[in-house]
């Protein structure tokens, strides 16, 4: 009796089981992928929050280095140069 039932209805039993199983597997995979993508988006949004601060820090550092390099030329121009008095500060840092 079970063999007769199986031979008669195996397509009706197997097809929905395979269809439901593949749909459930795909749904589960999609949920996991979306969760991982959302975590990545949060990480990227934090990264884009840090990039301007990093750029500001690099710019500040380079500006300080350029100021240090230019100190060898201060108060030596032909138009504005002069001899500094004892204890007098330079015209710019």
Automatic annotation (TrEMBL):
The subcellular location is: Mitochondrion inner membrane; Mitochondrion membrane
One GO cellular component term:
mitochondrial inner membrane
Q: One Pfam family of this protein, by short name?
A: NADH_oxidored
Its membrane topology:
Single-pass membrane protein
Domain of life, source organism:
Eukaryota
Keywords, A to Z, come to: Electron transport, Membrane, Mitochondrion, Mitochondrion inner membrane, Respiratory chain, Transmembrane, Transmembrane helix, Transport
Q: Please list every transmembrane segment annotated in the UniProt record, as residue ranges.
A: 43-62
PANTHER family (UniProt xref): NADH DEHYDROGENASE [UBIQUINONE] 1 BETA SUBCOMPLEX SUBUNIT 1
Q: How does it assemble?
A: Complex I is composed of 45 different subunits.
What does this protein do, in the record's words? Answer: Accessory subunit of the mitochondrial membrane respiratory chain NADH dehydrogenase (Complex I) that is believed not to be involved in catalysis. Complex I functions in the transfer of electrons from NADH to the respiratory chain. The immediate electron acceptor for the enzyme is believed to be ubiquinone.
Q: Which family does it belong to?
A: Belongs to the complex I NDUFB1 subunit family.
Name this protein carries in UniProt: NADH dehydrogenase [ubiquinone] 1 beta subcomplex subunit 1
Species for this entry: Anopheles dirus
Q: What is the lineage of its organism?
A: Eukaryota, Metazoa, Ecdysozoa, Arthropoda, Hexapoda
């Amino acid at each position: 009796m079970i063999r007769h039932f199986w031979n008669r209805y195996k397509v009706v039993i197997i097809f929905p089981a395979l269809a439901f199983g593949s749909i459930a597997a795909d749904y589960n995979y999609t949920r996991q992928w979306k969760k991982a993508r959302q975590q990545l988006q949060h990480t990227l949004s934090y990264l884009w929050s840090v990039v301007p601060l990093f750029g500001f820090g690099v710019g500040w550092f380079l500006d300080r280095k350029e100021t240090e390099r230019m100190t060898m030329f201060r108060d030596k121009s032909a138009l504005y140069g002069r001899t500094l008095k004892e204890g007098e500060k330079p015209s710019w840092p």
